[in-house]
Amino acid sequence: MPILQDLYETLNAQPEPEAKRLAVALEIYCAGSLNVFNHRTNVVCYRGCKAMDGMGMHQIAHVLSDEKIERPSYYHGKNGVGTRQSDYDPNLPYAWRGSTVANILRTLAYCGHLVNLRMATVDFKTGKTAEKPKDEWVIFENRHEAIISQEVFDTVQKLRQTPCRIDKLGYANPLTGLLWCADYGAKLYNYRRSEPRKPTETKLIDVYQCSTYKIGKKDFQDTCTVHHISTEMAHDIILDILKRTSGYIQAHEDKFVEMFRNTSAEKQDETARSYKKLITKNEKRISDLNRIFQSLYEDKALGKLAAERFDEMIAAYEKELGELKAKNTELQAEIDEFTADNDKVDKFLALVRRYTRFEELTPAMINEFVDKIIVYEGEWSEGFNKENGRPMGTRSQRVDVYLKYIGNFNVPDIRTEEEIEAERKAAEKLEKKRKHGREYMRKRMAEKRATEASDLPIAANQ
Question: What's the confidence (pLDDT) of residue 402?
Fold first, then answer.
């Protein structure tokens, strides 16, 4: 696979002045500070796409090894560049590791950014270095051509923060990390198992349940409800929302943009006012704390306040001051983000245009479109049985799907009144049929229990 170094050497070998001029222009990308491009760059895009498909770091490493792609340390050592020229193993050219893939996927240079002051020397005798905290980096954005988009990079970082373990079924559930409990704000855990139904058949149980509920049950505490939802139902809900949203955009794109901006403007005005009031309140408290600091120092200097008491009060006030400043910074950042709504709707439209049909929900589609899913507790139409506590009737459940860039935005129903009425009648007919079936089964069970009760004395006399 050709790389920039091959082009650079070919141009240098040409006698024409134009070739020499082009070689000089490429020198910074081959031997200079931007030599990040002087390797197999399509592998970076390939890894990013595989991560978007829900594959883990070790899975990607296995794929790269199977496809005979050279690992970075071997490639650099073989070509005499980098810091691995003397200690790379020439017998293992394709021995990729998950940590190597993870380090590449978190490199900001592939988004077109330059990062300075990322490393610090911890031992000047040995020259050992260590990575500094990210808030101490100096990042210069959009300084050269990007290999992957910022949106893909951010999505991959979010996916890396959520462990998606591969079970006996051989794959991880792509919805893990996206479903949240509406009551406690906790993540929903995925539970999968196979249950035998017939001697030769099994049924896959694939559901999500509230983590607070599951953890509380271990300690015999009822801290939350189960918030049960199956993966199949979540898939159907997401796919239905994507179909309705994309269908409305294709038919009424101008109306969608206008509706989103009007709705967003109303939310922004209300939220911005509340945020600004809170910022003003915090700033007043910060000013009061500064005066308190001055008074405490004066009391200590005059001997009116003991040193131990002074230290305790200063520590408490310093903590409060730091929290207030951090909160104000966070609120101001959210206010500043409100001005980017025009870019958000344009990005969502560009994302929708990439897909012509939404027939099957893939992991890549989930990671590109879905930001989070809020799951509420299910409700039963007939409540619960007073004798055994079992639910009765038809189960309904509210699920809010937040799409990237536009949030929980419900597009208008583009169906005709006849179609809506026909669907309502079909739902009523189905519910009536289900209710009749439930009443019939209850009657049969009551008759069965009565027969068993009447047979008990006869059996006792015999």
Answer: 92
Integer Cα distance of 320 and 285 in angstroms: 10
Residue percentage of the chain with pLDDT more than 90: 9
Please state the φ and ψ torsions of residue 118, each to the nearest 5 degrees.
Answer: -80, -30
Cα 66 to the center of its chain, rounded Å:
29
Q: Where are the alpha helices (DSSP H) in 193-252?
A: 211-218, 231-251
Q: Which two tokens stand for residue 244?
A: 């309705």
Q: What are phi and psi of 207, to 5 degrees?
A: -135, 165
Residue with tokens 């139902």: 233
Q: Tell me which residue of 244, 265, 262, 231 sits closest to 413, measured CA to CA.
A: 244
DSSP annotation of 101 reads: H
Query: What residues are paired with 399 via a beta bridge?
Result: 375
pLDDT exceeds 60 at position 461: no
pLDDT in tens, 189-233: 988 888 777 777 788 888 999 988 888 877 777 788 889 999 999
Q: What is the pTM of this model?
A: 0.68
CB neighbours of 279 closer than 8 A, spacing ≥ 6? Answer: 328, 331, 332
153 backbone dihedrals φ, ψ, rounded to 5°: -60, -45
Q: Compute the residue count for the chain.
A: 462
Instruction: Please give the structure tokens belonging to residue 420.
Output: 């809506």
